[in-house]
Task: inverse folding
């Protein structure tokens, strides 16, 4: 897995917009992790999220309540807050980030938050208005817009490499830049622009790599992408979104109940519908996620050395 992650790892994708608030309640901490909840033994779990308005959360909280778990969703507008607030004990869980984001956070903050469940991978897509049906149709010398920020640029380059449009001299990594494109072995030229301008560039360039949220904001149907990194789930694995807990709570059975509820057909069907089919639900065991996180943290440290 580490070899796959080394080739696939790319810049943090944290495009969530999230609303800081806090609420109390009896919650199952590490000392309470001995049994599951039920109707006669109710517990409250505060979960930091980025998209509380999504309807699938209502389905999720209703199903959890039937199992004796009262979920309080705490919405955030600043994505730098959910992890520190979880560490401080003012949340029990959060669900807003992917593996690579957590790896960067843990290394930078000297923290030890752990993934305890997975959710889905959300695509980074390649779009065009020039009538190309696939990357193979894009002509030699075409110009493609990509985000220019460290958050998304490397991932966009990996999308183009996976699509067969460019070749990166080092195979691609978390810090790949356009300077590392092997021009002689590449079919297209990249044009870095602000991420929120990638959709605008569709009118003048041959194609653009656009984040889901910016595509939606521009009225672009995400299902019209001619390629995305969802077509190579190994490449996208660092971007698998996750449930996160404090290290001492990673084996809490109540939290494991919540992961099972999240992966119920009622919730996942609604999640996929609300995302227009541009997500792949993944139910990865916690121990595998934790191993992946450790590998990613090693790569982050190596890159900073």
Result:
């Amino acid at each position: 897995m580490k070899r796959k992650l080394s080739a696939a790892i790319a810049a943090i994708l944290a495009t969530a917009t999230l609303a800081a608030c806090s609420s109390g309640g009896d919650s199952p901490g590490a000392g309470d992790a001995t049994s599951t909840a039920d109707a006669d033994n109710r517990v409250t779990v505060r979960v930091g999220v980025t998209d509380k308005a999504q309807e699938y959360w209502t389905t999720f909280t209703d199903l959890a309540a039937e199992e004796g778990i009262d979920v309080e969703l705490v919405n955030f507008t600043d994505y730098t807050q959910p992890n520190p607030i979880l560490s401080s004990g003012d949340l029990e869980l959060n669900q807003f980030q992917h593996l690579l984001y957590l790896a960067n956070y843990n290394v930078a903050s000297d923290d030890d938050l752990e993934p305890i469940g997975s959710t889905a991978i959300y695509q980074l897509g390649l779009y065009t208005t020039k009538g190309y049906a696939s990357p193979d149709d894009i002509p030699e010398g075409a110009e493609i817009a990509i985000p220019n920020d460290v958050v998304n640029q490397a991932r966009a380059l990996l999308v183009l490499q996976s699509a067969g449009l460019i070749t990166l001299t080092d195979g691609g990594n978390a810090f790949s830049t356009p300077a590392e494109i092997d021009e002689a072995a590449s079919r297209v030229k990249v044009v870095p622009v602000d991420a929120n301008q990638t959709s605008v560039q569709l009118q003048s360039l041959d194609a653009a790599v656009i984040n889901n949220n910016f595509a939606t904001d521009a009225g672009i149907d995400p299902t019209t992408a001619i390629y995305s990194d969802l077509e190579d789930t190994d490449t996208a694995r660092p971007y698998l979104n996750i449930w996160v807990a404090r290290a001492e709570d990673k084996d809490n059975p109540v939290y494991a109940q919540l992961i099972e509820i999240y992966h119920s057909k009622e919730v996942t069907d609604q999640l996929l519908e609300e995302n227009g089919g541009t997500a792949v639900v993944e139910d990865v065991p916690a121990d595998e996620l934790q191993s992946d996180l450790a590998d990613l943290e090693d790569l982050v440290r190596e890159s900073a050395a």
In short: The mean pLDDT is 87. The domain at 38-121+236-304 is CATH 3.40.190.10 (D-Maltodextrin-Binding Protein; domain 2). Residues 286-304 form the longest helix (19 residues). The chain is about 30% helix and 20% strand.
